[in-house]
Specification:
Two copies of one chain form a homodimer. With about 210 residues, chain A is of the alpha/beta class. Chain A has six helices and ten strands. In chain A, about 35% of the residues lie in helices and about 30% in strands. The radius of gyration of chain A is 16 Å and the shape is globular. Chain A starts with a strand and ends with a helix. At the A-B interface, helix 2, strand 2, helix 3 and helix 6 of A face helix 2, strand 2, helix 3 and helix 6 of B.
């Protein structure tokens, strides 16, 4: 069972020309997305091997681009924001062989980049049966959901939520709106809460299997 | 009802002479504590006004020192790690009038510093009735706890856990060990999960009041 988190940055830059000295001010709030990477992928003493994070970067002259970080293969991911920013900056600046739109090209193990938008993510999901969720403030409480006992994909908006086209595309997928409690949280905290619920469900399944 | 999070950094520096270019490598992993500040204090579009965070800094030549960030009064707290590091660096570098050990001196609204260790935090709690918790991997599940309907203080270790003296002091307080699920998480994620549970309990109380 794989968990996928798709974080959509409406202004987050797809170009490497941002400053590490002012990440929020020069990268279209890429810092929000970096914190989502940490929350989804990193746990004490390691990585969530069952988790893939997609960063959909819709800002800047190189947009749209998607970065894919696969917890099963990626190494040398540190939790501090500057290290994550450097990782992404290098991934965005790397010259890659030409590829079709929406096709992921591997940069190093566990790290790949596609030219494309949300469609690149959907193409990457392939024909696998996945259950889609979208984090929404007024969604049904994650604790009350019959979370799928199979691959899940969770769509996460940035600090601006979703643009109308993206929202329509996610709705077309039949994604279930899921909420995480009474207070509106930052995207990374929302991911943490969802991961905790998924961890608990899996532990319960394994204990009763 | 006030929530207090006491984050204890065994090596986290109490001096301002760390480098923003390598926070993990030069600050005794102050980055871990900064992420705890974000998780405890910041929500979408604002701060948790009912939350106070103490950073107990036990590393470097100026140790021990405690920084206190009070969500009710503090302003201009941004979520990115570099901004939080700058805030802490300035707070540690500021010349302050002499004060007794364990006494907090205000730096600016919502931000204060004490010379001292855990005792400074305990003195600051004063005679108020508080219920103490300590985050432990093998603690009782936070969801199963009859969480106090009054002021709470939650002790949080860094990436090294607690040193024996600190652990003994926390045990003396009668702190209840609390766990947050089947997977060992980073301290900031653990705080996020605890905050989410406290938010839910409060919402339930308010709905039935």
């Amino acid at each position: 069972m794989t968990r996928r988190f798709v974080v959509i940055g409406q202004q987050a830059t797809a170009s490497p020309d941002f400053s590490l000295l002012d990440l929020p001010g020069t990268s279209g709030r890429l810092d929000v997305l970096l914190r989502c990477v940490r929350a989804a992928l990193l746990v004490s003493h390691g990585l969530r091997r069952d988790t893939i994070v997609y960063l959909v970067l819709q800002g800047g002259p190189d947009a749209p681009r998607v970065l894919r970080l696969d917890g099963n293969d990626i190494r040398f991911v540190r939790p501090d924001e500057r290290s994550l920013a450097l990782l992404v900056q290098k991934a965005l600046g790397r010259e890659l062989p030409p590829a079709e739109r929406n096709a992921f090209v591997t940069i190093r193990p566990g790290l790949a980049r596609a030219t494309g938008d949300l469609e690149a993510v959907l193409a990457d999901l392939g024909p696998h049966a996945v259950t889609a969720y979208v984090l929404e403030e007024d969604g049904r409480d994650v604790r009350a959901l019959a979370l799928a006992d199979r691959d899940v994909v969770v769509f996460v908006g940035d600090n601006h939520g979703f643009d109308p086209a993206t929202r329509a595309r996610i709705e077309l997928l039949g994604a279930t709106a899921v909420g995480i409690g009474p207070i509106s949280l930052h995207a990374d905290d929302a991911i943490t809460v969802v991961c905790n619920e998924l961890d608990r469900r899996r532990a319960t399944r394994e204990a009763t299997a």
